[in-house]
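Hello,

Our lab assistant flagged a job as stuck in the queue for most of the afternoon. It eventually completed. Since we weren't sure the result was trustworthy after the delay, we are filing this so someone can double-check. Below is the sequence as submitted and the structure that was eventually returned. Let us know if re-running is recommended.
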Amino acid sequence: MHPLSPRLLFLVPVATLLVSGCTPDTTRDRVEHDVTATFANQYVQSEQVQSQPLRPAQVRGTECHSGLNKTADAGPGAWHCTISWTDPAGGRHDDGYVVLVDSLGCYQAFSDEERDATVRSADGLAVPDPRVGFDGCYDVYDGRTGTSKA
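-- returned structure --
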């Protein structure tokens, strides 16, 4: 038996515990909650860029599902989210987003339909629409641990 074997046998479980204890838990509840809040903020920024009255979109609901872990609806990777919202004029929208979630709880969201959408700024320039692509990080210690499918 190699003289380091008992030490290695002790260190492997300790290292495994340390690594697993530091891994953020990506749950459906966390993704849905944060993508909804970030979309609402980006909608207001879009209106602001266009010098529109700052009237937020009314988000009716968001449903997200993991593309990699379909059984548990959890974990990093590619997710698809549908954000249902009503604009200030009463128009109803159901927008799809591809959400790429990393292992640290941060994500990038891209609209399925309007990847290159622009809006007119106050000075007439065509600029990227802030609500079409956005990023964020969710709180991995918030208690949103639900993963059940709706």
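-- support follow-up --
The delay was a queue issue, not a problem with the job. The result is valid. The chain is about 25% helix and 30% strand. The chain has one domain: 23-137.
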